[in-house]
Amino acid sequence: MNNLYEIKKIFGSDISLLNKKENYTVIDYGKIDGKGILSIYNLFKGVQLVFIDFKSETCLHSSRLIDNIFEINYCFEGRFECEFPNHTFTYLGEGDLAINSMENLAINSSFPLKIYYGICILIDMDVASSEINNLLNFFSISLNDIYNQLNLKENCYVCRSTSKIKHIFCELYENKEDIDINYAKIKLIELLHFFSTLSLENKYDVQYYTSNQVYKVKHIRDHIIEHDDRRFSLDKLTKEHEISLTLFKRCFKEIYGDTPYSYVRKYKMNKAALMLRLKNININEIAISLGYKNASKFSEAFKSVMGTTPSEYRKKINDFLEQDNPFRVEEKIK
Question: Which parts of the sequence belong to the HTH araC/xylS-type domain (predicted)?
Answer without folding.
Answer: 218-316
